[in-house]
Amino acid sequence: MNMMKLISWNVNGLRAVLKKGFLATFTALDADIFCIQETKMQAGQAEVNTPGYHQYFNYAERKGYSGTAVFSKYEPLNVTYGIKPFFDDDEGRVITLEFPKFFLVTCYTPNSGGELKRLDFRAGWDEAFRAYLTDLDKRKPVIFCGDLNVAHEEIDIKNPTTNHHSAGFTDQERAGFTVLLKDRFIDSFRHFHPTKVEYSWWSYRFAARSRNAGWRIDYFCYSQRLQPEITDAQILTTILGSDHCPVELDTTDALLPDQPAKEDA
């Protein structure tokens, strides 16, 4: 049976990961749509050779910071950057592709930072992003993915008891994600694997990855009414090159656009 495969990966610097076998991984995964967060680059700073894919980049104004990208075998009906008018973002955090049967949104959610200095900014972002997704969902179903910078439940983090005041696991951030999902969206991995303990991010410090002292902060979520077409969700923990690993969403071919994109010149 044909299916559609979607991949999302925070590469923690696209130029850096290109030197660590990214293109070989990209080719091997053979995703229909491949979303990237934290590209950390500006236009023209790297050539990413992905034959057969349309490429879309949203760059942060600040050099070497944030940024997102999407590579798609299928040409979307429309592409938008950012989430205006809900939030005026100059950090390149969101790209939205509209396809005939759904919206695809990739997002790099702001981190609340050391000593939670950006927690208020993050709270404003969460509220705006929720409003943006809700608005899209009124028009057609939504699949959204990315590094959402929150470990939702205690099962999603190795050491929950010592991290309740850490960026990405504060009560406020976790509650915000609960509200985002409530009555509208489904966390794909937790739906298909309700008790499975797997992580998608490990600090570079303290040999965290070798000890599997990680966090699950990378997601694919989707509108509830898409559930009949969603077949699986995985965390690809064996893929190296970043402090994050990719996450995957599989759907039936019912969501596939009609024609593959022609290769970009």
Automatic annotation (TrEMBL):
The active site is at Y108, D147 (proton donor/acceptor), H244 (proton acceptor). Residues 7-244 form the Endonuclease/exonuclease/phosphatase domain. The keyword Transmembrane does not apply. It comes from the Bacteria. Signal peptide: none annotated. This is ExoA. Its cofactor is Mn(2+); Mg(2+). The gene is exoA. Mg(2+) binds at N10, E38, D147, N149, D243, H244.
